[in-house]
Every structure is written in C-alpha cells, then in structure tokens.
Amino acid sequence: MMHFNFPEGEILLIDKPLYWTSFDVVGKIRNLLVKKSGLKGIKVGHAGTLDPLATGLIIIATGKATRRLTCFQGEDKEYEATLMFGSTTPSFDLETSTDKEFQYTHITRELLSSVIDKFLGESEQVPPSYSAKFVNGRRAYKSARKGQKTELKPVRIFIREIELLEFSLPVVRIRVLCSKGTYIRTLAHEIGIASGSGAHLIALKRTRSGSFLLDNAISMKDFENLILSLS
C-alpha cells in the first residue's frame, strides 16, 4: 500500500488531459484531497503552465513541497510538436480558425531539416498575442480575442535540441528541448515562414521537465482512483 503525506509535501507527476487547463488539474487534485482526507487548507501548485490544447507532463506539488516549485519552473522542457503546413491561424494553433493559406509542396525532408537546425541556440522570441502574458495589467489573450492589438516584448530563449521525428506533408512532427519561456506555437509559426510557407501547431505534448519524465506520470483518472482507494 502506498503512503502519502500531502501536508508535509508530495511531488506528483501528472499527464494533463487535452482541453484541461493547468489550474483545472490543480483544482481537481485539491478537491480530491479535501474530499478524501478533509485537508481543507492544503496547498497545491504546479510548475509550468500547459495550454488547454497541450497534453503531457505537469509537475504538481502539495503542502510544504510547493516551496520547491520555483526551482522546477526554471528547468528545460522537452516537447513533441505536430505542425500543419499550408495554413496559419492568428493564435498559431487550433484555438482560432485558419486566416491564410500557403503552398507547401516545395518542402522536402532535407529542406525542413536544414530549416529547423537554424533555430538551435539562443534567440529572441516574441510571445504569441494569444498568450497568458500580461500587457498593461491584462492577459494578452483576452485582448486578442476582442480583436485588440497588443505589443509583446521579445524574450530570450534557448533551443538546445530540435529533431524531425516524422515527415508526411502537410503534417510533420518534431521534438524540441528548450529553455523556460519558449512558446512552441511561435516556433511552429516561425518554422513555417522559414520554410517559405506557413504552418501552425495542431498538437503538443510535454515529454520532460528537468529530470522528470512523462513516462513516469499518472493520468488524472488513475490518480483519482488511487486517492479514493487510500484507507
């Protein structure tokens, strides 16, 4: 039988479901702990937000372990991203509808491999307008959804590894190991431009955060069953 001490602090690796926000995961875990153990004042937090349209690893901490979250947030992240060539969207992903279409038949595996290699190393990246960044005290995506333009400042990012996993135009899949604060949606958009076409993100999965692996994570359903089974 597994034993947990949630008030003293536990680190939980969760495989975030599609369409859930990171706060949905935190709220669900907090509610489960309150329901099962009556821990009404229990602290629960996460290390690194995942968009609702992304899946994969999210690190959750409870109790006193929430103090360690800032350390985890600064670590490198690894993702598997699926890109659709031939069209773009204002949000750079599936949150918004296609706004422009492009030719892509000129793109070869060799061309794309050469293009993505150019993104290795340090660079400046402008966050997407549909992001949770604060601009003048307001989340950027709230302004974007109302059609209001926002000016986001570029941030320094570092891409340590980038690899082409699958090539089946108009869809390709890549693996990216990058620094904190890197927007894979923006990277997908920029790869489309650099390839002489257009592209947007259609799927994203976080596979690693620091030394923590998605392979060691548990689904929300399995975590719920585990908590409810504890004596």
Write structural notes for this entry.
It contains six helices and 14 strands. It has 231 residues and is of the alpha+beta class. It has two domains: 11-74 and 211-229, Pseudouridine synthase (2-Layer Sandwich); 77-209, Pseudouridine synthase (2-Layer Sandwich), CATH 3.30.2350.10. The strands form three sheets. Strands 1, 2, 3, 4, 7, 10, 11, 12, 13 and 14 form a ten-stranded mixed beta sheet that branches. Helix 1 runs parallel beside helix 6. The N and C termini lie close together (9 Å).
Q: Identify the CATH class of the largest domain.
A: Alpha Beta
CATH fold assignment of the largest domain: Pseudouridine synthase
Q: How many domain modules?
A: 2
Distance between the termini: 9 Å
Assembly form of the protein:
single chain
H/E element order: EHEEHEEEHEEEHEEHEEEH
**Structural classification:** alpha+beta
Helix content: 10-25%
Mean pLDDT: 90
- Superfamily at the CATH H level of the largest domain? Pseudouridine synthase
> In what range is the share of β-strand residues?
25-35%
> What is the CATH architecture assignment of the largest domain?
2-Layer Sandwich
Uncertain runs with pLDDT below 50, 5 residues or more? none
- Tell me about the biggest sheet? 10 strands, mixed
- CA radius of gyration: 19 Å
| Shape designation | elongated
Number of helices: 6
Q: Total number of β-strand segments?
A: 14
Task: Walk me through the topology.
Elements: E1 11-16, H1 22-37, E2 44-47, E3 54-62, H2 69-73, E4 77-85, E5 87-88, E6 100-101, H3 109-117, E7 121-125, E8 134-135, E9 138-139, H4 140-145, E10 155-168, E11 171-178, H5 184-194, E12 199-209, E13 212-213, E14 218-219, H6 220-229
Parallel strand pairs: 1-14, 3-12
Antiparallel strand pairs: 1-3, 2-3, 4-11, 4-12, 5-6, 7-10, 8-9, 10-11, 12-13
